[in-house]
Design goal:
about 150 residues, alpha+beta, Jelly Rolls, 6-stranded antiparallel beta sheet, 3 helices, about 30% strand, globular
Length: about 150
């Protein structure tokens, strides 16, 4: 059961009322993750979702001719893994732990069951996932603008 009130403000949990948050918390457990541990690989079935309490996780992608390329590093308060909610439930990126990390790990099969039984909870989770994806797109846009700006100077 989640007992860290700072996690309530994360996009995944912020829209849930107390009863919904308690049901979601019942699917989670605190975990410690060591550097170098791969949480998931691009293209594999999407199982799991984490909220980082402290530490860091790098999102990566396989680029032909270049190998594995880190596209973003996530830290405290960030949600790692959203593909579990969106069919066909396959990871769009890979993820590797880059520093000693404490996180809450959620059982995404149980989360989908909760969402199916309680459409209001499912809608709130979907909005939280959408907000997470939107933040990632904004961050990617900012990095691309910086990249192209520095090429012209």
């Amino acid at each position: 059961m989640i007992t860290d009130p700072s996690l309530d403000a994360t996009p995944l949990l912020a829209r849930l009322d107390a009863a919904q948050r308690a049901r979601v918390a019942g699917t989670g457990r605190e975990v410690r993750l060591e550097p170098g541990r791969r949480l998931f690989d691009e293209g594999r079935p999407a199982v799991g979702c984490w909220i980082v309490c402290d530490g860091s996780v790098a999102l990566d992608v396989q680029v032909p001719g270049r190998g594995t390329v880190v596209v973003q590093t996530l830290g405290a308060g960030d949600v790692v893994g959203w593909s579990w909610l969106v069919p066909p439930h396959r990871w769009q990126l890979g993820a590797v732990v880059t520093a000693d990390t404490r996180a809450w790990e959620f059982d995404t099969e149980r989360l989908r069951e909760l969402a199916d039984r309680d459409p209001a909870l499912g809608y709130a989770l979907a909005l939280g996932v959408a907000e997470t994806v939107l933040h990632r797109l904004y961050a990617t846009r900012a990095r691309l603008l910086d990249l192209y700006r520095s090429d012209r100077e």
